[in-house]
Amino acid sequence: MAPPPDHRRPIKRVAISDQQRRRELALRVQADRRSDAQNRARQLASSVLSLGPVTEVEPELEQEQEMSDASDQSGGRTELDPVRAASLRGPEVRRWFATQLMLPEWMVDVPPLLDSDWYVFPRPSGKRCFVVSSNGTTVSRLRNGSILHRFPSSLPNGARTKDVSGPSSSYSILDCIFHEADETYYVIDMVCWRGYSLYDCTAEFRFFWLNSKLSETGASDPPSQYHRYRFNVVQIYECNLIGLQAAYLGQVSYVKDGLLFYNKHAHYQAGNTPLALVWKDNVCSQYVLDTDNQGQIPSQQQVVLELQNDGSLTTSDDPPVALGCLSRDMIAQYGLRVGNLVRVEVRDDSVKLVDGKLDLGDLQLVGKPNRSRAFADTYSKVLFQYAARRAPLRIEDLVASIQSNPSVENSQALDIEMEG
Amino acid sequence: MALEVTQFLLNAQSVDGATRNHAEESLKQIQEQNLPAFLLSLSSELANNNKPIESRRLAGLILKNALDAKELHRKNDLAQRWLSLDLATKTQIKTSLLQTLSSPVSDARSTASQVIAKVAGIELPHKQWPELIGSLLSNIHQVETHVKQATLETLGYICEEVPPQVVDQDQVNRILTAVVQGMNATETSSDVRLAATRALYNALGFAQANFTNDMERDYIMRVVCEATQSSDVKIRQAAFECLVAISSTYYEKLAQYMQDIFNITSKAVREDEEPVALQAIEFWSSICDEEIDILDDYRSEYTGDSDVPCFYFIKQALPALVPMLLETLLKQEEDQDQDEGGWNIAMAGGTCLGLVARTVGDDIVPLVMPFIEENISKPDWRRREAATYAFGSILEGPSPGKLAPIVNVALNFMLAALARDPNNHVKDTTAWTLGRIFEFLHGAVVETSVITQENCQQILTVLLQSMKDVPNVAEKACGALYFLAQGYEDEGSVSPLTPFFQDIFQMLLYVTHREDATESNLRTAAYEALNEVVRCSNDETAPIVMQLIPVIMLELHQTVEAQKLTSDEREKQNDLQGLLCGCLQVIIQKMGSIEGSKYAFMQYADQIMDLLLKVFASRNATVHEEAMLAIGALAYTAGPNFAKYMPQFYQYLEMGLQNFEEYQICAITVGVVGDLCRALEDKILPYCDGIMTQLLKNLSSNQLHRSVKPPIFSCFGDIALAIGENFEKYLVYAMPMLQSAAELSAHAVSQDDEMLEYTNQLRNGILEAYSGILQGFKSSPKTQLLVPYAPHVLQFIDTMYGGREMDDAVMKSALGVLGDLADTLGSHVGPLIRDSSSSKDLIEECMVYDDPLVRESAEWAKHAINRAVSG
Description:
Helix content of chain A: 25-40%
CATH topology of the largest domain in chain A: D-amino Acid Aminotransferase, Chain A, domain 1
Subcellular location (chain B): Cytoplasm
Organism (chain B): Carex littledalei
Keywords (chain B): Cytoplasm, Protein transport, Repeat, Transport
CATH architecture of the domain at 731-870 in chain B: Alpha Horseshoe
Number of strands of chain A: 22
CATH class of the largest domain in chain A: Alpha Beta
Largest interface: A-B, 51 and 78 residues
Radius of gyration of chain B: 32 Å
Helix content of chain B: over 70%
Shape of chain A: elongated
Oligomer: heterodimer
Protein name (chain B): Importin subunit beta-1-like protein
Family (chain B): Belongs to the importin beta family. Importin beta-1 subfamily.
Number of helices of chain B: 42
CATH superfamily of the largest domain in chain A: DNA ligase/mRNA capping enzyme
Distance between the termini of chain A: 88 Å
C-alpha cells in the first residue's frame, strides 16, 4: 500500500507520540518555572522588602482553636534576604505564610476620620487563613502555617482543568475566613493575584481589585467537581452612619463575629497594624469576652503573655509591652523558661495605670495556654478585654464619633494618629 | 575547456568498490581544483546525446547538488558560490541546460528540467536570467511533443522553486496560458497533457490574480475538471491533485463549482482506480481542514472573526457526502492493520468522515447511526468493522451531550466485541474506538464522564486481557488504556484506577517483554500507557510507582551492558533505551512532585544518575534527548543536592551544547541548563565559565539551527538569576550580544507568519534575559553596573512598540522588563522610564487589553515605576 499524503494523518494513528508530549511538557514546565522564578523574585522581593522582618520560628502544627485572632504576634526576628526568599520551598513556605497575615489591633478608642478614611464590614466567624492557588491546586493555610484544606477551585490555576490561562505556576493569595456552617471561604482581602503582588497597594485598590477579579473566575459559583468550596466576597461599607449601621445590624449569610475596620490608604502589612481594627459587642458577636482553655468565660480576665528573662511578662507587640511580672518562686514551681507562654489572671486590686499605660501588677498564674498558641496576646487585646468587662467602647461611641467629626480637623487628627 | 569526465562518472556507479572510490575521489579533486570547469563539463556531459545515459544522469545529479542543499546555511553558501562564478561560464552552462530540453532521451530532459529550476531558484530573485521564461515559452510552440513536455515540466519545477513575487504578472499570465492550453482536451499527446497538469499543480500559487478574474478562473476550473475525465489514469490523478490544491488555496472562490465537483468526486470515489479515488476523498478532507480552521477562528475569543468567510460546503453536501464516505469503509483490505504506513480507500474514507464530524458536529450523528445499527452485528466481518470504524470516527466533533447516551448503550457491546469477536480487524478497530471514547467523553473536559466507578473495573479487565491478543490489537488496547488514564490525571486521590495499579503495571511490563513486542509498535504503546498511568498516580499509589523504579533501572542496566550487537539489534536497543529513559523521566517528575514520595525517591538518585551517565555512551540522538530530559527532571527534584553529580555530568552537558547537527539535543540541553540553574542556584557558579563560553559560541554560529537561539537568550536570564551579581564578569560579553540581537529583532520586517513568530520568540528570549539579569542584581551593591544599559533596553522596547508586531507573550515580557528596570535600578532610571513616551503608552494600552495576564503585567509595571519615580 502507498503511504498517505504527507499532511494527512490517518485517523487511527495517534495524533502525537508520547515522546513528543514528553518533550513539549518538559519545555512548557521549563518555561513555567522560569516565569515562576522571575515572578517569585518580583513578588517576594517587592513584598518582603516592604514587609520588613520575618520570623524564623517554626509554628506549631495543630489547628487554631480560638475563634478570634486579633491578638498575637511573632517572636524572634531576623532579616530575610529577598533573593533567598524567592527560592523558598517546603517547610520554609509554611513558615513564611505563618507570618504574612495582616492582624488588626483591637479598637480601644475610636480613630479620627473614621467616616472618611475607613471601611467597615462585619467579620465572618470562623478560621482566618491564607488561600493560595497555583499549579492546579488550592491550599488554605491557617495562621500557624498548617494546612486547613487542599482542594480544586476556580481560582486562577486553582484546579487542573484543561483551559489554563497563563503560567500554571503563578500564585494567587487571598486572605480569607473559612465559615464552617456553609463551608464557604469569605474573602476579606487579596494579597496576590496571578503572580502580581498587591502588598504595596492601598486597601481601596485591593478591595476594588478583589471585587472585580474574583467575579471573573467563577470562584463564587456553587461547589462542583473542580471547585470544592465556594468563595464569597464580604460586603464592604464606607464607614459613615449608613455604612456602619448596615455592617452592624444588616443581615448576612454568615455568623458575625464583630466588625472590622480598614484604613483606606493602608497597604497590606504583615503582623499587627493599627490601620486595621476589630471591634465587638454582644449584638454583633458571640465571642466578645475571651475564653479559657476549656472554652468557658472565666470570672476574671485571663491573658496569655510571654515570659522574659527578668521575670516580666510581655505582650507580642513589637516592641513587646511588659504588663507585669511573675515571682521567682512561681517560675521555679512551674518549671518555666524564658520564651514560654503563660496564662495569667488579672486581679482588679493590683491593676494600675502608669503614664497612661496599663500595668497588671502581680499576676496569678493559671496555667499554660493551648499548645496551638504560637504567640502571646497583644496589648490592644488585653486592653479591649479589660475595658469590655468594665466600660466597653459602645456602638453609640462609634456613632457619636462619626457625627462629631467635622472634616476641617483633618490635619490635626492625622498628626495624632501618626504618633500611635 | 571542458574536461573529459564520462569515465569517472561511469566508474562512480561501478559495482566494484575500489573503482567506485577512485572515481569519486577523482571527481572530488577536479571539483576542488577548478570548479567552473567541473560544472561546465557536467553540463556538457548532460547535454551530449552521444554520451551514455548513466553518465549524463549522474552529471545532472552532481550539478543539482552543487546548487542546492537541505540545510539552510549550506543552501545559502551554494547559492553565493554560484552567483560568484564568472558570467561566461554561467551562460555556457545555462545554454547547455536549455539545449538538453530538446534531447530525445527523456531521462536527460527530465534531469535538465530540475537543474534549470535550481539555477532559476538562485538567479530569478536576483533579477538575473530574465530571458529564461521567455525562451521556455517560445519552446511551447514547437511541434515536437517531447520538447513541449520537457518545457512544461521545467515551468512546473520553476514555479515550485521560486517565490511568486519574483515573477511579474505578465509572465505569470503567459506561463498559465501555456500550461492550461497544454492541459486542454484538444491536446493530443497525453505526455504533454500530464506534464501540463502537473505544472499547473505547482503554478497554482502564482495564479492569485487570475483566480479573482471570473472568466480566467472559469476557464482554469473547466480545464481541470475536464482533465479529471481523461482516459489516462495518471492525468486523472494529477487533475484531482490540482483540485485538492485549489480547495486549500482558493477555498473562497469555489462556491459556484461545488455541485460539479461533488459529482466528479463521488463518481471517482465509487468507480475509479484507487490512486484517483484517494485524491477525490482528499478533496473533501481538505475542504474540512479549511472549514475547521475558519470555524476555529470564529470561535476564538480574541479576534472573533476570520479573513475568509465560511461557506459551509460540508454542511450543505452532508446528506450525500456521508453515504458516499460510509460506502468506502466497506472496502477494507485483509491485512491493513499490520501495515504501519498503509493508506487505502477505507482508511481515507474514515479519516475524512472524522474530519466531517469535526466540521459539522452534532449533525453527522443521525446520518451515521443507521449505518452502525444495521451493520454492527452482521456475520460479515467487513460490515462489523466498518460500523465500528464509523462509530469511532465520529466521536470527536459532536457534543458530549449528543454522544453520551449512544456511548452508554454501546459500551458493553464494544467490550464484548473486544473480548470475543472472532476477527482481529474488528477487535483492532473496537479497541481503537474505546480509546476514542475515553479520549473525548471522559476526563476533566467533559461534564459527566461516561466512565463510572462501576464500569471502570469491567473496562480494565477487558483491556488488560486484550493486551495478550495479537500485537496490533494489544497495541490499540494499550492506546485505549492511555486515554482512560489520561482522563484521571486531574482526579487527585479519588481515581477509580487506584485499586488496579499493581495489575496494570504487571500487565504492561509483561507486554514490553513479549517476544513480538516490536511488531505494530506494541512495546512503545505499552511504555506510553505506563507513563500515562504514572502521571495520574497520587499519594496513595505513589508507593506502587516506587516499586517500578528498580524494575526500569534493571532493564536500562541490561541495555547498557549489552555488547557485540548487530546493527539491527543495536537499533532495537536504542529504541528500548529511549523508552526506558522516557519512562524514568516521567517517574522522576511525578515522584518529585508528590511531597510524601520525594524523599523515598531520592534514595535512588545516585543509581539513576549513574545509569543515565552510561546511557550517554550511546551515539543515538533520541536516546541522548530522552536521557537529557530525565536528567533535567532529576535536577529539579534533587535541588541543590544535584551539585554532587555535576563533576561527572558536566562533560555531557557540554557535549549536548556543542551538538549543532542534532539541534533538538542542543535545544533540550539549553533547557536543562535552565533546570540546573533553578536547582543549584549559586552552586552552578563553578560551571558557568564553560557554559557561558559555549552559549556565546552557539549564538555566533550560523550553523546552529536558529530555533535554538531564543532559548539561549532566556538561558542567560536563568544563569543571571541563579548566580546574581556574579554574572558581572559575563556582562561585557552577554550585553553586546543582547544589544545587537535586540537591534536586529526590533527592526526585523517579517514577510510571513513563520518569520514573525520567530522574531517574537527571539524578542521574548532577549527580554527574559534582561529580566533575569536585572533581578539577579537586585539589592546588590553592583546594581550600578546595569545603569548604562538601561537606555538601550528602553529603546529596544520603544522600537518594538513602534513596530506594532509584538505578540502577547512579548508584550508581557516587555512589561516585566519595564517593571524590573524600575524595581532594580529605582531612582536611577525612574525619570528615564517616565520620559520614555512609548513605555507609558505601552502600559496604558495594555491596561485595557483583552488578555487579563497582559493587563495585570501592565498594572504591575506601572506600580513599580510609580514607586521608582517617587522614591
